[in-house]
Design brief:
Elements lengths: L4 H5 L4 H48 L2 E3 L5 E4 L7 H5 L4 E6 L5 E3 L21 E6 L2 E12 L2 E10 H42 L1 H11 L20 H45 L6 H24 L8 E3 L2 H18 L2 E6 L6 E3 L1 H18 L5 E7 L2 E5 L31 H12 L2 E6 L4 E6 L3
Helix pairs in contact: 2-4, 6-7, 7-10, 8-9, 9-10
Length: 457
């Protein structure tokens, strides 16, 4: 399904939202920096020229050349090309003055010392600006000593030369450099931010996995709020408090179920005794049957409450074959009264299972009892045990495909079932399997129904 424009602007993932926010911030910052650099390039260039002209003049002054008489003759051609000062005309001007301010270089009768506009040469003014022939220049004066004499080196550079060079070459290079730097920075930023966000959100992922693994059997589990960021701790603490209330309510429900079932056992036993001692009329047998049915249902409620608590189990590794044999012998008598045959096959590779012995006995007994109740007289029930689990297949009418997902629900009964029961037998099996981490499944057979348990992690 195509993602809407609103979903693109506001992704559902917290990490995606944070990453999108960072990227937007970086893009806005990059645009603002670029615009600022472009707008301030010329003023900044003039400022840098004015503040750096003295440094340039000092650098040139260290390479002044003198003749044998000690008179300056220009710059050392091995260090600085003289063409810089002669070929660029009005753009770059070099003057070497004597102590009195006279021009010693260049030897041109028309050459004048460099001075601020409408001013005279002043050796104490180190940097200044002036206009000559309509060209704005920045200049500086630096004193040097040679042969016991003092000389002054003056260097002037035009604004338009620097600005033109930066516009034609520097700005393009600057733009390309900014673009390349921004692109490289964004790539590195995306990778680093992705990894950083993944590490930062790792406690949330761990907490989510822990929360998703909480079941009615593990309501005592709590999330570690101290491992979460400060902003997330109130949410985690509220979740833990909700678990406290849920656990308390669940325990209250289980205790009520167990207490109610336990309290019903004695009155039912007394009622049965009174009926047996009473007159044997036409309703005697039917009433006894109803009382026995109620007693069985109460017993199943007690058993259901017991298997719903993890502390009721003692899970350890043991050989399941003796338990399977005990269940088979116990249920064989029930099957014989119903005219049903039991068949069992245990694979040779069956090893140790991690299970509670009593719970495994109850699980197998309830499944076989369910199969016996649904099998016709003369039918065969097959119990097959392998290293990975077991299955029980009967030859009864089966269960419609639309009802299969509900057969392990509490108090569920088929629409056309004719045998007695409250619909708790398979629910008890489901609770036992869940406590062991096993999986129960139901599938149609030809004929009948196949109930299987997978023993695995």
């Amino acid at each position: 399904m195509a993602m809407s424009f609103a979903e693109l602007l506001r992704p559902s993932s917290l990490r995606a939202r944070l990453l999108a926010t960072f990227i937007a911030g970086m893009l806005v910052s990059a645009v603002m920096v670029t615009v600022t650099v472009v707008l301030l390039l010329n003023p900044f260039s003039k400022h840098m020229l004015q503040s750096g002209i003295k440094d340039h003049t000092e650098a040139v002054a260290t390479h002044i050349a003198f003749d044998d008489t000690g008179a300056p003759i220009g710059v050392d051609e091995r260090e600085i090309g003289g063409w810089v000062f002669t070929g660029l005309g009005k753009e770059v001007i070099l003057r070497i003055l004597d102590a009195q301010g006279g021009v010693a270089y260049p030897k041109d009768s028309g050459a004048l010392p460099l001075a601020p506009d409408e001013g005279n040469f002043n050796p104490h003014v180190e940097a200044f600006a002036f206009v000559r022939d309509g060209v704005d220049l920045h200049a500086a004066t630096v004193p040097i000593e040679h042969g016991g004499k003092r000389w002054y080196v003056q260097l002037a550079v035009s604004d338009r030369l620097v600005l033109q060079m930066r516009r034609s070459v520097g700005l393009s290079a600057l733009t390309q450099g900014l673009a390349a730097t921004c692109a490289l920075f964004l790539v590195i930023f995306l990778i680093a931010t992705h990894l950083t966000l993944r590490m930062a959100l790792e406690p949330l992922r761990v907490a989510s996995e822990a929360a998703s693994s909480i079941t009615p059997r593990t309501l005592h589990t709590r999330l570690d709020s101290e491992a979460q960021p400060r902003e997330i701790r109130p949410l985690v603490q509220a979740f833990n408090q909700a678990l406290d209330r849920l656990e308390q309510g669940y325990q209250t429900q289980q205790e009520f179920l167990a207490h109610a079932a336990h309290e019903l056992k004695t009155p039912l036993a007394l009622i049965r005794a009174q009926i047996e001692l009473g007159p044997k009329d036409g309703h005697h047998t039917a009433v006894l049957r109803d009382v026995d049915l109620m007693a069985r249902q109460v017993q199943q409620l007690l058993l259901l409450a017991e298997v719903s608590e993890l502390q009721s189990f003692r899970i350890e590794a043991h050989d399941p074959r003796p338990t399977v044999q005990d269940v088979f012998e116990f249920m064989a008598r029930v099957a014989e009264r119903r005219g049903v045959y039991l068949a069992v096959r245990v694979a040779d590779d069956v090893n140790h299972w991690h299970a509670d012995r009593g719970a495994l006995f109850t699980l197998l007994k309830n499944l076989l009892e369910n199969a016996i109740q649904h099998s016709p007289e003369g039918g065969v029930i097959a119990l097959e045990v392998t290293a990975t689990g077991f299955s029980i297949t009967d030859q009864g009418p089966g269960v419609p495909a639309e009802d299969l997902p509900f057969i392990f629900d509490r108090f569920w009964r088929g629409r056309d079932r004719q045998h007695v029961g409250a619909g708790l037998g398979l629910a008890i099996c489901k609770e036992i399997a869940s406590a062991h981490g096993w999986r129960l499944s139901a599938a149609p057979a030809s004929p009948g129904l196949r109930l299987a348990a997978f023993i695995g992690p």
